[in-house]
Amino acid sequence: MKGAFAQAELHIIRARLHGAKLNKAQKGELRFPLPVGLVFDGEKIVLDPDQEVQGAVRTVFELFAQENSAYGVVQRFHELGLRFPRRAYGGVRDGKLLWGRLSHSRVLGLLSNPSYAGTYVFGRYHCCKKIGPDGEICTQLRPVPQDQWPVVIPDHHPGYISWDQFLANRNRLAANRTNREVLAGPAREGLCLLQGLLICRLCGRRLSVRYTGNGGIYPIYECGWKCREALPPRHYVSLPAKPLDDAITERLLTAVTPLTINLAFQALTCLEERDKIVATQWHRRIERARYETDLAERRYEEVDPSNRLIASTLEKRWNDAMQRVLELEAELAKFEREALRSVTPEQKQQILQLGRDFPRLWKARTTSSCDRKRMLRLLIRDITVVKGPEPRLLRLQICWQGGASETIEVLQRPKRQDAVRYPDTFVAKIRSMAELHDDKEIVEQLRTEGVTSSTGRPFTLCMIRWIRFKHRIPSPPRPVGTLTVGQVRERYGVSHWVVYYWIERGIVLATKRRQNTPYAIMIDDETDHRLREWVANSGHLHPSSPTRTA
Questions:
Q1: Which among 514, 535, 512 is positioned nearest to 522, based on CA atoms?
Q2: C-alpha–C-alpha distance, residues 303 and 311, integer Å
Q3: CA distances from 320 to 85, 296, 482 (A)
Q4: Residue at 475 is within a domain
Q5: Do residue 295 and residue 385 come from a single domain?
Q6: pTM of the predicted structure, to 2 decimals
């Protein structure tokens, strides 16, 4: 019984402590470690008085607004040679700032921390305990959804960004995820313009990109979730990328005309602010190095010159600090010469001219695919692909960022077998020409008219023969009242050699349209009577049927 009361008292004490903690947090008075860039000034939270620290934090938010990706911020920081601070807790360096490289996890921490928006938040994480596989009790922190935060006090202290910008950054990070089917994801470097924007009407999932062909020069959009789930691929969506990209590009170039000047001004402002922020951060870094040099000089001057052990150490620190200033000044000069760009009035006029000529900006070789995708996502939220009732017809339902929507139709290119198939009108033309002309005459007439085949080549004799064979087009009919060699042979009961003998000796009248074409034999009543007597009186010819000579 005493043990049960003891455990109950522990729970009561823990509940009271937690209640007092929550009560103090609701007043905004509960103190907890602040992120870098914010410090306590008595009981208030203020911005770090160190201008270099403030500049580093502001640079992260500015670069994220430009790059729209946490990885992009890290890459730009390393390209510009900038450093980022972190505050040490515990040990001999407790409370001191340590400068080093910016990591991806630090960027995610800054962008997801509401303290930088001037908001006091308590309860972002929930501590829970569970029993592990080996029977030990493990403590785990789980993030709490934003709408379930117990304490949120806006405008509690000065911040680096606004609350709206903080929410926009969180939404941008969530949209950059690539392990979700319904999100567009970040703009990539591929050639497909609509990557991440197309949605399948059948299943509501996002269409993925696949590069086919030799070297991946034929990209396609496809909805392959059924294949991934080992389901029957019925109604499988696979669309070539070029017709869809061209249709959206044409619609975009006609839709952004009223916005081109605003886009140009925004690009100009962002360029100037970015260069100004980077240059200011470099100057603050040099200013800090000079302060450390002056501090090392004063310490060296205050030491007793007779104490050579300490004096030599301080002198070495002073020399290292001065060398560090020289190195930073050399790096700044190199940065200003190679990376820092100052916008002159002439360059401003050029940017404004590009804003008035948005199609030329879109089609410029210097505009990368990633930049085009970013411009496109500023205007279009998503595009739903719907197959029309007609074959090879697609309907693209465009949802613009402002909420408006419209539908455009895109006619896909025909399949290869349909593209090389001759239309019915051409087959009918060949059929009518075959009634009066042979294959060679048809070829000559088509070449005279300038008609080419379905593949764009001039017609040949083999092509016409194949068309006649494929569509069962007969040869030109014989003249009326004429017979073939086979018909004459059957009529008189002789071999075809006898018929050719009659033709060569002129016994029967036979004509040919061209060489290597069948004979057209004309036999009148007098010739017929003579041939029958010939067969009946000949000692070498033996009719196979007595009725044929009757």
A1: 512
A2: 6
A3: 21, 9, 116
A4: no
A5: yes
A6: 0.54
294 and 431 assigned to the same domain: no
Q: What separation in angstroms does the CA of 221 have from each of 176, 193, 199, 373?
A: 19, 11, 10, 16
Residues 339 and 224 placed together within one structural domain of the fold:
yes
CB 435 within 8 A of CB 477: yes
DSSP state, residue 367: S
Residues 163-221: tens digit of each pLDDT: 989 998 988 888 777 655 555 666 666 778 888 888 888 777 788 888 887 777 788 88
Expressed in percent and rounded to 5, the helix, strand and coil fractions of the chain are 50, 15, 35
How far apart CA 196 and CA 380 sit, in angstroms, is 11
Residues sharing a CB contact under 8 Å with residue 337, sequence separation 6 or more, in sequence order? none
- Count of Cβ atoms closer than 10 Å to residue 137 Cβ: 8
Q: Residue 527 — φ and ψ, nearest 5°?
A: -65, -35
One-letter identity of residue 420: V
pLDDT at 185: 63
In which region does residue 456 sit, left (phi positive, over 0), alpha (psi from -120 to 50) or beta (all else)? Answer: left
> DSSP state, 313?
H
| Residue whose token pair is 């004429």 | 482
Residue 309 Ramachandran class (φ > 0 left, ψ -120 to 50 alpha, else beta): alpha
Residue 30 lies inside a defined structural domain of this protein? yes
Rounded to whole angstroms, the Cα distance separating 61 from 49 reads 18
The residues near 298 (Cβ < 8 Å, ≥ 6 apart) are none
- Between CA 550 and CA 544 the distance in angstroms is 12
Please tell me the distance from the alpha carbon of residue 224 to that of residue 530, in angstroms, as a whole number: 81
d(CA 496, CA 486): 7
Tell me how far apart the alpha carbons of residues 118 and 116 are, in angstroms, rounded to a whole number. 5
Burial class (CB in 10 A: 0-12, 13-18, 19+), 359: middle
> What's the pLDDT at 111?
92
Separation CA 527–CA 529 (nearest Å)? 5
Residue 445 shares a structural domain with residue 493? no
In a domain, 306, yes or no: yes
Range of the domain at 169: 2-183
Split into its structural domains, the chain has a count of 4
Instruction: Provide the pLDDT for residue 523.
Output: 85
Say if 476 falls within a structural domain: no
How far is the C-alpha of 485 from the C-alpha of 510, rounded, in Å?
10
Q: What's the confidence (pLDDT) of residue 274?
A: 75
Which parts of the chain register pLDDT below 50?
A: 545-550
Angle (nearest 5°) at CA 270 between 267 and 274? 140
Q: What is the DSSP string of 34-89?
A: PPTTEEEETTEEEE-S-HHHHHHHHHHHHHHHHH-SHHHHHHHHHHHT--EEEE--
